[in-house]
């Protein structure tokens, strides 16, 4: 998968370095620059873009409060490309300059790798061993202007922000829990957007999830991690700082993938991104023919029939299909015959994904994943695994051994970059998925999660509700407790399935809801999933709107949503010259209202060429979709 297409590598320069020397490395385009100094035997870094100060005089260390000596420096340039198994791009360029800094912490040797890309930087420490009594602590400061605005994920709630760095210690600003965690988005006074991330946790045993804290004396943002070191080699995750002119471009920045370990799987032919139907949000819904959905064979046959008819690859069966858990064995619920359902799905060419709740059994058991494989499943949706890094890492590896996709549910570890290393890690719920905790999120919350939570990787958000009126009327057992709290439009729901990137797009409504709006469902049906050739964020503004374009082959799919309502100019300067394109519009109407008339929509077609500008008009909380292909 990781075939090297271009390699201009290893311009090496090994030089001696005195403690007082300044060490620096510049991006390939000459703009971003890291400058280190080791005054008073404490290594600190500075980040500049041209004459702009981004981060100044900030400590970075592996053994905190231990004097460090710089012994040698090596400089390297790498410029190559690689091909992911699936993702937002079919080919990714990996071009950076790297400074390899040899260090000694009171006799303990360590190496700091500092990479500078055109749109961000990355740091990693490595040691050969930890033979001294020093306790490894990955410590990193981010000394930015106090007025910098910080946004942070907030579990299943609306992300925090913008909070001035000087206010981060105030619980009134970001809730009682007061936890600021990766991925952060920073609105920097230099008119730059930064994201603070870490990638490649797969290579960092002994490491756990971090939160950010504030050094109140200096008003400096700090991250700090202890390692469960046993005297063996230490490899830290990559600490990343993305730097972009536009907030939307953070989503298509490929540094988190570039620094991750290459694919570890010899055979990836069984890994197929796709769409899935899902039973959980449909329970209790009564169709017009009088049938009521539940946990039973007939309900699942209906899902499978619709999936087969509409080229939907998967059907996801959620909780309550079993009553008792033993290692490598589960007692099936008498509500359904899972073997019969599996045989029916196989006959129809639909793959099954099955939920597992670790609270009900021996989670982490190596027998779990082979058992799921023996049931004929293609994936596991793993619920309530917690934020345990070693357990999550092992679950990803064990599921791969059994040729199972894995979808982490319920507040998982943000394993950024893991889709490169283990592409069976198909998605995760690092967000408020639709109707979680039986409450609805707002259009504003969706946009925040699309620009913040999605930075850590693919999201399982369960967008695509078409029977909005039924959900708001309380006609679903798992719908929001508060009636009429789902504020959206049916076109916005279609657009959200494209905007949120995932290897598994889970659409949560009943088959009848999609059949009744089959002309609108066309956008979701025709939309590829996961294996995109190119992705662009055309417009993005925090709390206001986002517009995303994705290409597979010579077809483009574009989805936009708007919190307050308005028009976005979509400039088609990315189409091929001298071609006519057919474009299908899926739009809100003048009568559409996200609160009172959410299911009104219109569909029209026309022909356009490169250079055309389309005005995508949306109501408050509404959306706009386009399917563009050559005539």
Automatic annotation (TrEMBL):
Cofactors (names): Ca(2+)
GO terms of molecular function: carbohydrate binding; hydrolase activity
Keywords tagged on the record: Calcium, Hydrolase
InterPro entries: Aldolase_TIM (IPR013785), GH (IPR017853), GH-type_carb-bd (IPR014718), GH97_C (IPR029483), GH97_catalytic (IPR019563), GH97_N (IPR029486), Glycosyl_hydrolase_97 (IPR052720)
Domain Glycosyl-hydrolase 97 N-terminal, first and last residues per copy: 25-262
Quaternary structure and partners: Monomer.
Protein name: Glycoside hydrolase family 97 protein
Organism: Neotamlana sargassicola
Phylogenetic lineage: Bacteria, Pseudomonadati, Bacteroidota, Flavobacteriia, Flavobacteriales
